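Record 1 of the preview.
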Amino acid sequence: YTLVDATDAGWLSGQTLILGAISLALLVAFYAIERVSKAPLVPFAIFRRRTITGTNIVGLLVAMALFSMFFFISLYMQQVLGFSALEAGLAYLPLAVGIIITAGASAPLVTRFGFKPVLVGGLFITAAGLVWFSQVDPNGSYVGDILFPSLLAAAGLGFAFVSMTVAAVSGVEAHEAGLASGLINTSQQIGGALGLAILATVANSRTDEAFTSGASQAVALTEGFQAAFIVGAGLAIAGAVLAMILVSGRASREHAEAAQRGELDPAPAI
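->
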């Protein structure tokens, strides 16, 4: 709540600072309780696994870029292109279908080459889609400004999410699978809230500057969206770079080899 409402309340407002302090205090209390618990909900030893920790950091960044992408595309379609809510929803269908198709195609790639190269490649493709989105025009069209870049972003997201899901539970014991799965979902939820708060602030700031300089509403809003998409692309690129550094290539190869020998189930399509 602190992060989501910070855009409206202000990052340095009393509400944000007080609620932020309470949030941090609760996290510290949770850590202290877990450290002395005989049966902790989150055994912190799991973070000693390089791939688990790296994947959760990457998942945080991916969600920061992804959630904001959907948010700002919706605003652009409705506030600039004049789409109704129903039309905007239907306009997302190619993106959704693209993710489904790419996710299915990425499963054998993860089994063949390992989750790390597929994850890194997917994040770079997602970043390219966001850079394309940053070229949206106040007089744009659905095909040129939404459809084509969304298909590119869909391909990247399909590759990234399947491989990230596999990497997030790679090498864990059977009794730790639920914890590992919960951690990656938590990282994505936190990343979505944090990313939306940060990028909304970026977009609003750029829009206010454009209004001050005399730009029309459509132009000012579009410039704000462009700035947000560029920052989102930077987050996706940062995720790709960190995946190259933090995610174990050896664990990725061993997972692929085990899957090819039939010792593991093939990578899930979703």
